[in-house]
Design a protein that fits this description.
alpha+beta; 5-stranded mixed β-sheet; 17 strands
Length: 274
């Protein structure tokens, strides 16, 4: 018998009576390619399906603000958790934590669920047992014939902390002071106060960092310590529109921001007429 090595690296065995063409085989179990389907990275379909699809940590930490109920995802604080939204928060935290295998010609990559369309992820949480079960089903390579199903169970840890906004409120942080003045009756003063406080409540729903940090009584009116200059200006504009207030604005340099810009504290005087 004579063995010839061809340029395409296919070994042809020659004998007087037959010609045998050697086919590709799985380097792990030795199965021929035609027996289970196309090889994937040198593995047959059975051996390739043994590779891990779902990568999940053993524990899942969910940080919750003990004051307002906001939760932290990555480095950002999100909206408040209610009884109806708790499962949604857990699912969001899981999808932000787990990774899925994606096999390419250049190697295996670990992607977030949002970065792949070939895998379906199901999250099943149990608040009583404090565990979260995750199931991933799909393909990590286009040549994969049958979808793979992987499951993982993570211990759920609720960690209570204080969010950024609540910390600012606790410190009574303010970038502006709105001074409400004038020869005011108690009724007019109460109406003006309700108007600006209602505006601040509505603004906080759009931007949680907008709030009134404190309100102090002063001779002839009230001082509102406001978290942002933009909100203070909106409050002053409302007083001008609804109560015909005269607006005077001034600013005082109080330091620098972290990026080196000058930082001012703005004072806005809103003088109401009778």
């Amino acid at each position: 018998m004579v063995i010839d090595l061809q340029e395409d690296s296919v070994i042809k065995l020659k004998s007087e009576s037959e010609l045998i063409l050697m086919r590709r085989f799985c380097y792990k179990c030795g199965a021929l390619e035609g027996e289970t389907g196309p090889l994937i990275q040198g593995l047959c379909q059975r051996c390739f399906s043994d590779l891990q699809l779902l990568h999940a940590p053993s524990e899942l930490d969910v940080v919750v603000c003990k004051r307002c109920g906001a939760y932290k995802l990555g480095k950002q604080w999100r909206g408040q958790i209610s009884g109806e939204s708790f499962e949604g928060v857990i699912r969001e935290a899981v999808l932000n934590t787990i990774k899925l295998s994606r096999c390419t010609d250049s190697g295996t990559k670990l992607l977030r669920p949002a970065e792949t369309e070939d895998v379906y992820v199901e999250v099943m949480s149990s608040t009583k047992k404090n565990f979260v079960k995750v199931r991933a089903s799909g393909k990590s390579h286009p040549l994969q014939i049958r979808p793979k199903v992987d499951e993982a169970t993570m211990k759920l840890n609720l960690i209570y902390s204080t969010c950024e906004v609540c910390s600012l409120k606790s410190a009574k942080h303010h970038d502006a002071i709105l001074q409400l003045r004038g020869a005011l009756s108690q009724e007019l003063l109460s109406r003006a106060q309700r108007a600006v406080e209602n505006l601040a409540t509505s603004a906080a729903k759009q931007e949680s960092k907008d709030f009134i940090a404190d309100v102090k009584e002063q001779h002839g009116g009230l001082d509102f310590y406001v978290s942002s200059v933009a909100l203070a200006k909106r409050m002053a504009a409302l007083l001008k529109e609804k109560f015909n207030a005269n607006i005077v604005e001034s600013a005082k340099l109080i330091g620098q921001t972290q990026d080196g810009r000058k930082k001012y504290r703005v004072s806005i005087l809103a003088r109401l007429k009778k």
